[in-house]
Amino acid sequence: MIRSAGRELIDAVIVGAGMVGAATALALARAGLKVAVIERHPVSPPQPGEPVDLRVVAIAPHAQRLLSELGVWADIAAVRACAYQRMQVVDAAGGSSLSFAAADYGWPCLGHIVENRLVAGALWRAVERESGVRLLLGDELQSFETDSAGVRVRLASGGVLGARLLVAADGVNSRVRNELLIGVDGAPYGQSGLMAHIDLERPQPGLAWQRFLPSGPLAFLPLSDGRASIVWTLPTERANALVAEPVEQFEAQLQRASAGQFGRVRLAAERAAFPLRLQIAQRFVDQRVILVGDAAHVVHPLAGQGVNLGFEDISALLASVARARAAQRAPFGDSDLLRWGRERRSEATLAARAFDGLNRLYGVAEGPLVAARALGLRVIDHLPPVKRKLAERAAGIRAGAL
Ligand SMILES: Cc1cc2nc3c(=O)[nH]c(=O)nc-3n(C[C@H](O)[C@H](O)[C@H](O)COP(=O)(O)OP(=O)(O)OC[C@H]3O[C@@H](n4cnc5c(N)ncnc54)[C@H](O)[C@@H]3O)c2cc1C
């Protein structure tokens, strides 16, 4: 039976302190559990006055709520977070559009655009202040053993940790998942998401705008510095070519792709392209190991839901801990973990399929499907109850977390 070199087992070891792993560590510690979290690449959070980082995410209301409950949202917002109150989706080939406004639902906003590094950094600072957590920065998972009682984790530094649960929050290429020989469903999209920050001639504060082109969607997301962050999905070869293109040619192509929505566009800083894939682990639970965040599920970024699904994993884990306690059971019992894994895999699969379907649907450039698609979007735009359901899903209300 697993024991940690004579020491008692702690409740959980979390591998990876990206946004999801760091939030898992903090959430479990706040629930009174003893945890350790290992991160091999510490990042420093951006400070006010520093340029906005390239990597940003749209944080949905349920994720904001989790971060507020963990006491870190105020720290994030104090540096910067840009709320958006309106969202517009435009079908370039079909000529129709769909709009959402937070005011229609009595909500303050539909979400916030925040830097990945800022979210992770704020969580780390909170974790460092927490007594129930060991934060092992600059260390790495070397190997692990697991049985029905727990896990033993060996670190690159030579340390050994014993725990009742191993949480793999180690990202898309999860080593833990690979070592457990957990296969994945899905495949690379052959598309990349080109990210850049753009100066706009006609900024539209509070608007998240996405234009579906046959080559992939182009999103303009508002930033707190008045610029926009773009996520431009393109076939990978074209995305890479655009990253290398001289600035003026890049701007001319972006100008065309955005159909002049924001007037003249100018590249503000660096550009980078990130390969996209659909990937769902075949199991989220294996004995005393669970997978969360990108280690478990990677979805197309067109709906801005990737990390939000990871935050839903955590909310569901907290609910599972609470249910176990209410029934006077220790958290992380086998049946509790299996239930958590089943529910989370089913949610993630549904979401991944929906985003995949949209990506395929809007990849069609001509023919009867384009007309049917345009009509469908127009009809939905005039059906407030359907729009409300879509907005609630995006906000995370279906997860019961809002
Ligand atoms: C172009 C693009 C746009 C996106 N836009 C959005 C959006 O708008 N909204 C949204 O919700 N999501 C978005 N996403 C998805 C989002 O970025 C990811 O879902 C999120 O970053 C995943 O976080 P994570 O913590 O699960 O994984 P990661 O951020 O990958 O973190 C994993 C961590 O584990 C560490 N690690 C790995 N292996 C080890 C090891 N052996 N030992 C120790 N540490 C280890 C790594 O150093 C890393 O810090 C987007 C993705 C892309 C590509």
Mind explaining what this structure looks like?
The longest helix has 28 residues, at about 335-360. It is globular and about 65 Å long. Strands 1, 2, 8, 9, 10, 11, 19 and 20 form an 8-stranded mixed β-sheet that branches. The protein has about 400 residues and is an alpha+beta fold. The protein has 2 domains: about 10-50 and about 120-185 and about 280-360, FAD/NAD(P)-binding domain; about 80-115 and about 190-275 and about 365-400, 2-Layer Sandwich (D-Amino Acid Oxidase, Chain A, domain 2), CATH 3.30.9.10. A hairpin with a 2-residue loop joins strand 14 and strand 15 (about 215-220). The chain is built from 11 helices and 21 strands. The structure holds flavin-adenine dinucleotide. Flavin-adenine dinucleotide (FAD) binds near residues 170 and 175. Flavin-adenine dinucleotide binds next to helix 1, strand 2, strand 3, strand 13 and helix 8.
